[in-house]
Design a protein that fits this description.
Elements (H helix, E strand, L loop, with lengths): L9 H18 L4 H19 L16 E5 L4 H9 L4 H7 L3 E7 L2 E6 L6 E5 L17 H6 L10 E2 L5
Parallel strand pairs: 4-5
Antiparallel strand pairs: 1-2, 2-3, 3-4
Helix pairs in contact: 1-2, 2-3
Length: about 160
Amino acid sequence: RGGRAGEDMRTEISTAAAFVTRLLRAAGGVGEEQLRCFRECLQEAMYEYYKHHWFPLEPSKGSGYRCIRINHTMDPLIEKAAGMIGLNHERLLQLLPRELTLWVDPFEVCYRIGENGSICVLYESPQSGGKAAKQLENRTNCKKEWRIGRACPPKSYNTMTISS
């Protein structure tokens, strides 16, 4: 069972869903209303899937369960949300990176595009004493890299701010 109230994982889930939505927007061909619906459907699917697998006292516990993965096949949570807006499997594979790993963990959301890409942090929150969560400053432009289907420059730990 998860050790934290469901609302507390919403920031992490919202960040992850916003990132996938931005990937779809950058690829083009999907309307804004469809993108809004996709994001909402993905958030709900993630919340339902993760709600009993959220362990803030052990953030890495269950990380594999919460990992969204595209590896020449589509992650079922993304595919489910895309189906709600009429995007089929083949079209989704055309629009999103061929290889994407997105880790949605308590206090942190990270991604990697490509098997050998660097890990980029989308969201990080202090893990101690009730401090407010904070978005990281955009220190490196990972955006340009994911638009062309690559990860951030190697051997660095980069961040990217995702806004709602």
